[in-house]
Automatic annotation (TrEMBL), chain A:
Protein name: Acyl carrier protein
Species of provenance: Aeoliella straminimaris
Residues annotated as domain Carrier: 4-80
GO cellular component: a single term: membrane
Keywords: Phosphopantetheine, Phosphoprotein
InterPro entries named among the record's database cross-references: ACP, ACP-like_sf, PP-bd_ACP
From TrEMBL, chain B:
A single GO BP: fatty acid biosynthetic process
Family indicated by similarity: Belongs to the thiolase-like superfamily. Beta-ketoacyl-ACP synthases family.
GO MF annotations, alphabetized: 3-oxoacyl-[acyl-carrier-protein] synthase activity
Organism: Aeoliella straminimaris
GO cellular component: cytosol
Pfam families: ketoacyl-synt (PF00109), Ketoacyl-synt_C (PF02801)
Domain of life: Bacteria
SUPFAM superfamilies registered for this protein in UniProt: Thiolase-like
Domain spans labelled Ketosynthase family 3 (KS3): 8-413
Protein name: Beta-ketoacyl-[acyl-carrier-protein] synthase family protein
Length: 86, 414
């Protein structure tokens, strides 16, 4: 997956987890938490969806990388570069 | 606990919030019960396929965000809808209510089966890899979930828990609410029952294996307590929560009062896992009457529990006949013939549907009795059409469940 495809995938996951939020104006450089109602259980949902959809394992020590869209895509790129966009 | 007790020891119902398969407000539901409108429909569930159920269509998003509907349980959503509707109906100044003095007591037949089945189905798609088992599982399946979700939604910081009481749970939740008010644990109690049971295939499969799951070409005819051709239970979802207060508090704020809980009783059969025991059911009704300082003949309407299983219906009729012995003017009806068996919500929904009788004097009927089972013949049984009376002053509501749990509440017009 390219960076743009990973971004789309994360957006898709966020749309499931935070269905009340308008994600069209998401600022990729700002943390998710500053822009929407997300708590620790929601972040676990992001980790779970990556595991279920793509078999990508995010160790607990790396959760900090899922703070914003930019940091998430940056972190996931090496892990998902060989995964084909479905 | 009678009308002769001091006002701060009298317990009254001042609000009703409900969702039933045939109505999402008391007015809609009552209209359905008086016009013969069933809430049973075709229903499809994993592994079972086509079956029948009572399904509710209330708007989950009226009081919840999508995020919390997704995170929580159906029982939680039903509870949240009912509790918010009940508070609104009660006229309590909710904004200025001390939420630490509000208690939530929700009866459930079971809880956690739906969520557990869903997760097992989900991990099956991943070859039973437990690492994809959701982190939401435990908060969804803890036994207090339906009551806890209500407190989260409404900012209630007083006590909350569920009362696990099989199909007597709706009455048990109301009784618990009353007891906690009398103990001074809260000033406003939200009590009753909820059920999400139609979302678990296991309950259908279990009743089917027991030979107790209803089937009928016409879904609206499937739930037929007391009828010779009944063939089992229609499983339903639903909820009904009452706002319960001490009479002194309700009177001080000029509240509308639906009725007073003048007597209640719970007991056990101690005789069988499944088969009811009419002797103990009769004893339960008599204890409730004694506590209410009423005679059987004083009761206007008996709302029966009968679920349309052959043994259960006959056993309850034996108990009712024993207590009410045919000489009293008491009328007898059954709500499951309209909505099926709403499990944890059955007791409170069945009571709620009868409460308007205090105002209109009408006893709603039992429908779907085309050929009355002679063993279910009871003096006063209202069949087919509503019965206008000269006035209803008292209702006795029965609710019984597996493992031999019995409950009866007596409500009196104020």
């Amino acid at each position: 997956m390219t960076k743009e495809e990973i971004r789309e995938e994360v957006l898709d996951i966020l749309a499931d987890i935070a269905p009340d939020e308008d994600l069209s104006n998401l600022d990729d450089s700002q943390s998710f938490r500053e822009q929407m109602e997300l708590d620790s259980m929601d972040f676990l949902d992001i980790v779970m969806e990556l595991r279920k959809r793509h078999r990508v394992q995010v160790p607990e020590d790396d959760y900090v990388n899922l703070a914003s869209m930019n940091s998430t895509v940056e972190y996931l790129e090496p892990l998902m570069k060989d995964i084909q966009k479905v | 606990m009678t009308s002769q007790a001091p006002d701060n020891q009298r317990i009254v119902i001042t609000g009703v919030g409900l969702t039933a398969p045939n109505g999402n407000t008391l007015a809609e539901y009552r209209d359905a019960l008086l016009s013969g409108r069933s809430g049973v429909q075709q229903y499809d569930i994993r592994y079972i396929g086509e079956t029948l159920a009572g399904v509710c269509d209330f708007d989950e998003l009226k009081y919840q965000k999508r995020r919390n509907v997704r995170r929580g349980t159906r029982a939680g959503s039903i509870g949240i809808y009912c509790a918010n509707e009940a508070i609104a109906d009660s006229g309590i100044d909710w904004e200025n209510t001390d939420r630490e003095r509000v208690g939530v007591y929700v009866g459930v037949t079971e809880h956690g089966n739906v969520e557990t089945e869903n997760e097992i189905y989900e991990i099956k798609q991943y070859d039973y890899d437990t690492s994809v088992w959701t982190h939401h599982h435990n908060p969804r399946t803890v036994a207090n979930n339906p009551a806890g979700e209500i407190t989260l939604n409404m900012g209630i910081t007083g006590p909350h828990y569920t009362v696990g009481a099989a199909c007597a749970a709706g009455n048990a939740g109301l009784i618990q609410a009353a007891q906690q008010l009398l103990l001074g644990e809260c000033d406003v109690a939200i009590g009753g029952g909820v059920s999400e049971s139609i979302r678990t295939f296991g309950i259908f499969a279990g009743f089917a294996s027991q030979g107790a799951l209803a089937s009928n070409e016409d879904p609206t005819k499937a739930s037929r307590p007391f009828d010779r051709d009944r063939n089992g239970i229609v499983v339903s979802e639903g909820g009904c929560l009452f706002i319960v207060e001490r009479y002194s508090d309700a009177a001080a704020r000029g509240a509308k009062i639906y009725g007073e809980l003048v007597g209640y009783a719970m007991n056990s059969d101690a005789s069988d896992f499944v088969l009811p025991n009419p002797k103990q059911q009769a004893r339960c009704m008599r204890m409730a009457l004694e506590r209410a300082q009423l005679n059987a003949g004083d009761i206007g309407i008996v709302s029966t529990h009968a679920t349309a299983t052959s043994s259960g219906d006959i056993q309850e009729c034996t108990a009712v006949r024993d207590v009410f012995n045919g000489d009293s003017p008491t009328l007898i009806n059954n709500t499951k013939s309209f909505i099926g068996h709403a499990m944890g919500a059955a007791g409170s929904l069945e009571l709620a549907g009868n409460l308007p009788s205090f105002d209109d004097g009408v006893c709603h009927p039992t429908i779907n009795v085309d050929n009355l089972d002679p063993e279910c013949e009871l003096a006063g049984l209202v069949l087919g059409e509503p019965r206008q009376t000269k006035g209803v002053d008292t209702i006795l509501n029965n609710s019984f469940g597996m493992l031999g749990i019995n409950s009866a509440v007596v409500i009196k017009r104020v």
